[in-house]
TrEMBL record:
It comes from the Bacteria. It comes from Robbsia betulipollinis. The keyword Repressor does not apply. Keywords: Cell membrane, Disulfide bond, Heme biosynthesis, Iron, Membrane, Metal-binding, Oxidoreductase, Transmembrane, Transmembrane helix. It is a multi-pass membrane protein. This is COX15/CtaA family protein. It is found in: Membrane. InterPro entries: COX15/CtaA_fam (IPR003780), COX15/CtaA_HemeA_synthase (IPR050450).
Length: 373
C-alpha cells in the first residue's frame, strides 16, 4: 500500500514541472519538457550530493519507503526511537526528510521520463523522434533506482554509492543530449564545419577525462577521504606522502573497512585523495586548453566559455574544500560544478557531431518539435 502512496507522491511532485511546461506560451512544449527534466535531474544530482555530505544516506534505513511507510510523518515514532538510541547516528528526523526528499524528486524525474516516452509514442508522426531515447532513459533510471536501493541495503558501500553517482550523471548526460537533439543549434559557415569536426576526438577525450575525474571524486567522497590531505599543494607536508593504493582502491569492501574487514588505514585514504588531486591537474589543464581552442568557433562559443568558467570554479571550490575543512555549501557546489561541466562537454560534443554533412538542419528540428502536449 505504501508503494502506491510513494508513486502518488512522485506523481504530485512531477505535476509542478509538467504544469510549468503546459502553461508556458512556447509552442515547442516537448522541447521545453526535455530541458525542464534535464534541469531537475541536475538538481537531483546536487541534492544527492547534499544527502551524502550530510550523512543522510541511511536517514531511512529501508527502501523505497521509510520504516515501511511513505513518509517520515508516518514513521515519526520509529525515527524518534532510533534517534533516542543513537543521537548522533545515521537516523534522525532531519536526515530522514533529506533522504526521502531525494527519493521523491527521483521518482518525479521517473514520471517526467515516462511522460516523454508516452508523448513520443502518441505523437511520433508530428515529432519524428525515436521512442528508443526515452525508453533508454527510463531503463537507465530504473537501474539507477536499483543502485539507490543497494546503497541503503548495503549500508553505503563505497563502490555502490560511486556507481549510483555515475549512473545519475549518465542520466543527466543522456537527457542533455536528447534535449540538444530537439533544439535548433546555432548556424555556422559550411567552410567552418570541417574545421569544427576536426575537434571531435579532442572533445570526446575531454569528456572521458572528466568522467574518470568524477569517478575519482566520487570515490573520495564515498570514502570520506576529502580531509586525508590537510594542506595544499603538498599533502600533509609532503609531495609524495605514504600511500596504500591496494587498500584505497580495493573496490568490493564495506565503508571504512578493508577487504579483510579491518579498519581502513589513513595511508589508504591519502592514496585516494592524492590520486584525485593529481589527476585533477591533468583534467583542468586539458579542459582549459580545450575551452580556449573551441571558443573561437561561433557554434561552440557558448558551451566552451561556460566550460572555462566552470573549470575555474571547480579549481577554486576544490581548493576551498581543503583549506576551509570541507564546508557543506562549497562541497555541494563542487559536486554540482562537475555535473555542469559534464553538460558543457555533452553540448560541445553534440554540436561538433551535428556539424557532420547530412545531419538534419536546425530549421527542421524547430518544426518537428513545435507541437503541443
Amino acid at each position: 500500500m505504501f508503494v502506491l502512496q510513494l508513486a502518488l507522491i512522485g506523481l504530485c511532485v512531477a505535476l509542478f514541472p509538467l504544469s510549468y511546461v503546459l502553461v508556458k506560451g512556447d509552442a515547442a512544449k516537448f522541447r521545453k519538457l526535455l530541458w525542464v527534466t534535464t534541469f531537475i535531474t541536475l538538481d537531483l544530482v546536487m541534492f544527492g550530493s547534499f544527502t551524502r555530505l550530510t550523512d543522510s544516506g541511511l536517514g531511512c534505513p529501508d527502501w523505497p519507503g521509510c520504516y515501511g511507510t511513505a513518509s517520515p510523518f508516518v514513521a515519526h515514532h520509529a525515527i524518534r526511537l532510533a534517534e533516542a538510541a543513537m543521537p548522533t547516528g545515521p537516523v534522525t528526523m532531519t536526515k530522514a526528510w533529506i533522504e526521502m526528499t531525494h527519493r521523491y524528486v527521483a521518482m518525479a524525474v521517473g514520471v517526467l521520463i515516462i511522460a516523454q516516452l508516452l508523448i513520443v509514442v502518441l505523437r511520433r508522426r508530428q515529432l519524428r523522434v525515436s521512442w528508443l531515447w526515452p525508453a533508454g532513459l527510463l531503463a537507465l533510471i530504473c537501474v539507477q533506482g536499483a543502485f539507490g536501493a543497494w546503497t541503503v541495503t548495503l549500508k553505503l558501500q563505497p563502490v555502490i554509492v560511486t556507481i549510483h553517482l555515475l549512473l545519475g550523471l549518465a542520466l543527466l548526460a543522456g537527457l542533455g543530449w536528447f534535449a540538444a537533439s530537439q533544439t535548433p543549434q546555432p548556424a555556422h559557415a559550411p567552410a567552418r564545419g570541417a574545421e569544427v569536426r576536426r575537434w571531435r576526438t579532442a572533445a570526446v577525450a575531454g569528456l572521458l577525462l572528466l568522467i574518470v575525474q568524477i569517478a575519482l571524486g566520487g570515490w573520495v567522497s564515498t570514502n570520506y577521504a576529502v580531509l586525508a590531505c590537510t594542506d595544499f599543494p603538498t599533502c600533509n607536508g609532503q609531495w609524495l606522502p605514504p600511500m596504500d593504493f591496494a587498500q584505497g582502491f580495493h573496490l568490493w569492501r564495506k565503508l571504512g573497512l578493508t577487504g579483510n574487514g579491518e579498519v581502513i588505514a589513513q595511508d589508504a585514504l591519502v592514496a585516494i585523495h592524492w590520486t584525485h588531486r593529481t589527476f585533477a591537474v591533468i583534467v583542468i589543464a586539458y579542459l582549459a586548453w580545450l575551452g580556449i581552442r573551441l571558443k573561437r568557433f561561433a557554434v561552440l562559443r557558448g558551451p566552451a566559455r561556460l566550460l572555462l568558467l566552470m573549470t575555474a570554479v571547480q579549481l577554486l571550490t576544490g581548493l576551498s574544500n581543503i583549506v576551509l575543512k570541507w564546508p557543506l555549501l562549497i562541497a555541494v557546489m563542487h559536486n554540482g560544478g562537475a555535473a555542469v561541466m559534464l553538460l558543457c562537454l555533452i553540448m560541445l560534443n553534440y554540436r561538433i557531431a551535428s556539424s557532420r554533412p547530412g545531419r538534419p538542419g536546425s530549421a527542421g528540428k524547430a518544426t518537428r518539435t513545435a507541437v503541443t502536449l
